[in-house]
Amino acid sequence: MSGAGLFDLTGRTALVTGCRTGLGLGIAEALAEAGADIVGLGSSPMPEAEARITGLGRRFKAVTADLSEPHDFKALIAGIEADFGAIDILVNNSGIIRRNDVLEFSEQDWDQVMTVNLKSLFFLSQAVAASMVARGAAGRIISIASLLSFQGGIRVPSYTASKHGVAGLTKLLANELAGRGITVNAIAPGYMETDNTAALRADPVRQRQILDRIPAGRWGLPGDMATAALFLASPASGYVTGTVIPVDGGWLAR
Q1: Residue 9 has pLDDT above 50, yes or no
Q2: Which residues are catalytic?
Q3: Domain 3-247 carries which CATH code?
Q4: Are 230 and 31 in contact (CB under 8 A)?
């Protein structure tokens, strides 16, 4: 198989949550450039994502679903597949963060983050995997973890708990689904220029502390995630499962 063929996603469909902007949009574009059609799932319209994906000559479907609310995910996936075709790749990118001192952190902020970042991720993965198994198809599930899947952080208790949970669920799902031809992996982005880090980048002291710790000396960009996501989504990565791959500019190595 040629180098280009190793990453050819022609004829496949990827469901990417939270692809309106940022990391999710960068991943969706990378998969589309490799030939995949894209279903974008999020709580608000995503015209920029649609324009970019269709501009690459791929089909795009926007699905409105607020992952902080309860859903019948199996029915949701069945509806998408009936309208657009079978899902071959799931990218669990949606996530939220809430910050406060541990002694002041609210139950509401805990529940909202855990619902979006962990509970919805699991049940969406379950629904997509069930569809793959029912039709005897190999598939790929990729979740976005975090450096806080490995570290504790400060002032983000529910985010840290949820991202540790993402790492654990990645391994559990991989164990149970590998025999079905479904790989389950995660990517742990480092400090990226996204909405979630806007407060940190706006604080001169914290920004300097962070940049001084990153061997690469800069914040990550959505494009830095593209090759990792493409590798894990590709047909040639079938023997890679249960991993959490850091894309962090060397942060964890420091």
Answers
A1: yes
A2: 159
A3: 3.40.50.720
A4: yes
